[in-house]
Amino acid sequence: MNVRRSAAVLAATAVIGAATPAVAASPSPTPSVAIPSGLYGSTDPTYDGVWRQSLALLAQDTAGVKPAGKAVDWLTGQQCANGSFAAFRADPAQACDAKLMVDSNSTAAAVQALAALGGHEAAADKAVGWLKSVQNADGGWGYAPGGASDTNSTSVVIGALAAAGEKPAEVVKGGKSPYDALVELALPCAAGGAFAYQPDKQGKLAANADATAAGVVGALGEGLAAEAAAKTAAATCAALGTPRQAAANGAAYLAKSVAKDGYLTSVLPGAENQPDYGNTADAVVALAAQGGAEQARGPLAWLQRNAAAWAKQSGPAAYAQLIFAAHATGTDPRAFGGTDLVAALNATGPTPQQTGKATGGLQRDDSDEKDSDDGFGVWWTVGVFLVAGIGIGFLISGRRKRRP
Fold this sequence. Notes:
By secondary structure, the chain is mostly helical. It is about 40% helix and about 0% strand. The chain contains 15 helices and two strands.
């Protein structure tokens, strides 16, 4: 998908994903707010602070790294009294009010990270309680409370529910579960078997690769750091009915989409088709979660050859996405096409606590080291287009979740 919560994507409330920018980046503007010392990444966190922090901490945990205490404290300090999270709160000491835009995606990502780290059950449970309180009558979630359900938001919330020990199928509103919402957003085989982001104004569904990668993982009851299925089997499209079949159909669509070149494509306004690194990483996770690691070998190999420059430009969330892809396929994230993704991620924020041999014996050091190449300039440009109405869909603990 990209670094999923780009600036204007979040400002547009209903938009969850964006086309991935080309690797070449324009100079980044000066952040409009000071970068907190506990936060990963050096770009303006206004629209993606909680999202990128949650992915970074979850990816570290997945790779056997114990995050810096100040990094975890920064995330927990962002939570509102009602349990929700906004994309970023510059002054956590100031109480959340009606003017603050809280959202399902930041909240669900934070739950997944905190649940994986352990010791934050009260915060996670309060966040889950808020998510349940804003569930839509169709069983799903939109980005903002009250917004129409979309595949990406519903899927990342499913991951949060499972991470917190809930059974997503039993979290219902109006008799509908999150899985019911996802099945309603899935296309039949005649239309490719993909997931749509949302119905259009006429109620029609259109295939969306970003939403499909998220939907496959969500329909399986998995989260952002999903693991590979126990059995390897190529996905085939069949008549819709169950969430598992919707996941298989979506995986078949993704497999076909990456079969030729090894990657998914995105189109920026006025630009030619170009590789979408983030969505391709998400597709790797989805294919592995549905059909086993072998089903994702093609796009995984493409990422290993080509994604290092994109991740360096895009920052912590991008490194996290690649670590999730490595995790889902049993690939060493410390030797990912010649790049140590874990070391690169760690370098974008506070140095993790000592974790022993797995991380080279890092010592606790809450330094404020940052990576200056988060690629915010391109994201800001992309975001301007998205706020104008060009939105597409997204995404989703290193532990196995209960499948529907």
